[in-house]
Design brief:
single chain; alpha+beta; Fumarylacetoacetate hydrolase, domain 2; 6-stranded mixed β-sheet; 5-stranded mixed β-sheet; 5 helices; 18 strands; binds manganese (II) ion
């Protein structure tokens, strides 16, 4: 047994739907601007430039359905996204074999301190302060691919306090899930335990403490998160 000089930091596990089992999270990758209408609302051309990626920390994940409004921002935005969880990985994964690495799917929020992200973009600085902060990744349980089948299309939506904010189809993604796994695996060595937040549709906007965010993805169901 290794002697630790501090207490072992907590690991993050996503529950697996319909079971007592859990999925241990190694890394959290996110893709930027993966829906054309969202790219436009952020002031960019939605052309098929190579995709870009950023990361959140596994310990930014929250599972209890609550999102604590963070410090240092007065413009915190919701971004609803489908989660893809990997059961295996590697480098230079082909598009045609990428789906074999998927364990399952879930619903996630890429909560964003938009004011800090804008400032970072403007100054050519990294995005961590805008993206990788405490509780910035509320995640649902995972649904194994054996139960859902490969998910390439289907409705994705978000209501805030009962009002529709984001509403699109997963097939509107600029880079498909197999394509993003393949491209990510050129930049990084992917492994079991990695999850990917696959981008958000148009309609992102600010939330306030007290707001109720209700996400929905066809075949995955609903995931409700309260802002406090
Ligand atoms: Mn996002």
């Amino acid at each position: 047994m290794t002697n630790l000089v501090i207490k072992k930091p907590l690991s993050t596990y996503l529950p697996v739907a319909g079971s007592e089992s859990n999925f241990p999270v190694r890394r959290v990758y996110c893709i930027g601007r993966n829906y054309a209408e969202h790219a436009r609302e952020m002031g960019h051309d939605p052309d098929r430039d190579p995709p870009f990626f950023f990361q959140k920390n596994p310990d930014n994940i929250v599972l209890d359905g609550f999102f604590k409004y963070p410090t240092m921002s007065s413009d915190v935005h919701h971004e609803v996204e489908m989660i893809v969880a990997l059961k295996s990985g590697g480098s230079s994964i082909s598009v045609s074999s990428a789906n074999q690495h998927i364990f399952g799917y879930g619903i996630g929020f890429d909560m964003t301190r938009r004011d800090l992200q804008h400032q970072a973009k403007k100054m050519g600085r990294p995005w961590e302060v805008g993206k990788a902060f405490e509780q910035s990744a509320p995640c649902s349980e995972l649904h194994p691919i054996e139960k859902t089948g490969v998910i390439e299309k289907g409705k994705i939506s978000l209501h805030v306090n009962g009002e529709i904010r984001q509403n699109a189809d997963l097939s509107d993604m600029i880079w498909s899930v197999p394509e993003m796994i393949s491209i990510l695996s050129e930049y990084f060595e992917l492994a079991a335990g990695d999850i990917i937040l696959t981008g958000t549709p148009a309609g992102v906007g600010a939330v306030r403490p007290g707001d109720n965010m209700k996400a929905y993805i066809e075949r995955l169901g609903e995931f409700v998160v309260m802002v406090h």
